Amino acid sequence: MVVVDMNRAILRRVVNTKQALTFSKRTFCNIAANVGSSSDNSNNEATENCNTNHDNEHDVAIVGGGMVGIALASALSSLALTKHLSVAIIDSNPTLGLKKTIEKDAPPDPRVSTVTPATISFFKDVGAWQYVQQHRHAYFDKMQVWDYTGLGYTRYNARDIGKEILGCVVENKVLHYSLLSSLQDKANFRKKIYPARLTSMLLQSEKLYPKGSPEDKRLSRLAKLELSSGDNIYAKLVVGADGSKSRVREVAGFKTSGWNYSQHAIICTVEHCSENQCAWQRFLPSGPIALLPIGDHFSNIVWTMNPTEASAHKSMSEDDFVKAVNYALVYGYGPHPTSSFLGQYGDGLSWITGGAPPSVNESFQVPPKAVKVVSERMAFPLSLMHANDYVSQRVALIGDAAHTVHPLAGQGVNLGFGDAIALANAIAEGISVGSDIGELPLLKTYERERKVANIAMMAILDGFQKAFSIDLGPINLLRAAAFHGAQYIGPLKRNIISYATGGKMWPLFS
């Protein structure tokens, strides 16, 4: 299972540390009441503190109620070792905790995500995929990528790695609704939603209370969060899931590295005369354009270009925009690619092709034409950002708060879901051995796991962006060679597909 992979050794430790597992069932006031003092006054104080119930104290405070933040809450609610935790969700959206419905007959929203099989498995584990299936979504098992020069193309097929699908395109609002619905299904999970913004955060220390009361010492082991609503809440662990402009990252003092791409992405929904069942991506001189199936004769456009072009395409008439889309994908810039030398003589070069997968014999296909724009056109700037650290004492970053990537492979939200899974598992393992879930050594295990995966994907996407931004004869030939290699060298193709769909990488030649 994706959500939890607890081995027998950890389970044995659970039995040996049963008392550690029950801490989440005890209120903080019970802990305070048990801190000894021989005086009646002290006991009365402890009893009075207990009567307040400490409703503003939580094990985990998640700042940000978007897809990744709710994914973490869903993961915590589903794991045996974490489902008893008290979780606060802080988000300024006043409707976050309300039951919502999604109008099924409306045209698709332009904000979509391509979720990988690994992400789909996670959604199934937490009970969210059943809700996705009740709304518009589109599985795809084929993908075609090609260059505007016409010198090369690559087709990918799920059968190349023995799978049924490469991914599924889903509207973001459907993903969010589905995760929330699965969370609301778990009536016994202790969650509280605060419709507010984080204004400040204090990471307290016992050094601040060298002669403090038991209550002071207890609070010193919690982070204090001040909210725009006037509420003050406390938590053992604060998780920043509040996006690329993260307030948690800012107030906790995390440093970042990165750069702007001097590119904007235009996104919108278009309609076809027939249903699109393939994902398409063409690299143009100004950036890639992707056509992603979303079901019911609709597709999503993600088109990268310079800011001036983005402004022009956002404001042009619908007819002109449809013509521009079809020119970019079907008619313009260069000839359609044809099969290569390797394709014609692949059988005689099996020592190179390494056992040709099914898609090797698939010829170039022309994508379906757009006939209508059915949503607003939205534009946003593109950048790369990576936090130098993901964790500090009592603080962890996940999703866009920790990293943002170029959208050319649709991997951003999958990286965020991977963060949520890994952090939930780290918290569960910490509980299994009686650790404080906000302690830095425990949080570092999450950081080590996710940094490797995220930096590797960021480096690949950034390299693609730079390589396809150069229009120069020798570079064009190198790109064509790369396309042909990805199309006809079997082990390389399987490696790429497995990595992009969230599976483990294949050996290059096996």
Automatic annotation (TrEMBL):
Q: Which reaction does it catalyse?
A: a 2-methoxy-6-(all-trans-polyprenyl)phenol + 2 reduced [2Fe-2S]-[ferredoxin] + O2 + 2 H(+) = a 2-methoxy-6-(all-trans-polyprenyl)benzene-1,4-diol + 2 oxidized [2Fe-2S]-[ferredoxin] + H2O; a 4-hydroxy-3-(all-trans-polyprenyl)benzoate + 2 reduced [2Fe-2S]-[ferredoxin] + O2 + 2 H(+) = a 3,4-dihydroxy-5-(all-trans-polyprenyl)benzoate + 2 oxidized [2Fe-2S]-[ferredoxin] + H2O
> In what pathway does it function?
Cofactor biosynthesis; ubiquinone biosynthesis
Q: Which UniProt keywords apply?
A: FAD, Flavoprotein, Membrane, Mitochondrion, Mitochondrion inner membrane, Monooxygenase, Oxidoreductase, Ubiquinone biosynthesis
Q: Per the UniProt entry, what are the Gene Ontology biological process annotations, in alphabetical order? A: carotene biosynthetic process; xanthophyll biosynthetic process
Q: Which cofactor does it need?
A: FAD
Gene3D superfamilies associated with the record: FAD/NAD(P)-binding domain
| Domain FAD-binding intervals | 372-453
Q: Name one GO cellular component term.
A: extrinsic component of mitochondrial inner membrane
Q: What subcellular locations does the record give?
A: Mitochondrion inner membrane
Topology in the lipid bilayer = Peripheral membrane protein
Write out the GO MF terms. Answer: 2-methoxy-6-polyprenolphenol 4-hydroxylase activity; 4-hydroxy-3-all-trans-polyprenylbenzoate oxygenase activity; FAD binding; oxidoreductase activity, acting on paired donors, with incorporation or reduction of molecular oxygen, reduced flavin or flavoprotein as one donor, and incorporation of one atom of oxygen
Q: Which PROSITE patterns match?
A: UBIH (PS01304)
Question: What EC number(s) does this enzyme carry?
Answer: 1.14.15.45, 1.14.15.46
Q: Which family does it belong to?
A: Belongs to the UbiH/COQ6 family.
PANTHER family in alphabetical order: UBIQUINONE BIOSYNTHESIS MONOOXYGENASE COQ6, MITOCHONDRIAL
Role: FAD-dependent monooxygenase required for two non-consecutive steps during ubiquinone biosynthesis. Required for the C5-ring hydroxylation during ubiquinone biosynthesis by catalyzing the hydroxylation of 4-hydroxy-3-(all-trans-polyprenyl)benzoic acid to 3,4-dihydroxy-5-(all-trans-polyprenyl)benzoic acid. Also acts downstream of coq4, for the C1-hydroxylation during ubiquinone biosynthesis by catalyzing the hydroxylation of 2-methoxy-6-(all-trans-polyprenyl)phenol to 2-methoxy-6-(all-trans-polyprenyl)benzene-1,4-diol.
The record's note on quaternary structure and interaction partners says:
Component of a multi-subunit COQ enzyme complex.
Name of this protein: Ubiquinone biosynthesis monooxygenase COQ6, mitochondrial
Q: Specify the species.
A: Aristolochia fimbriata
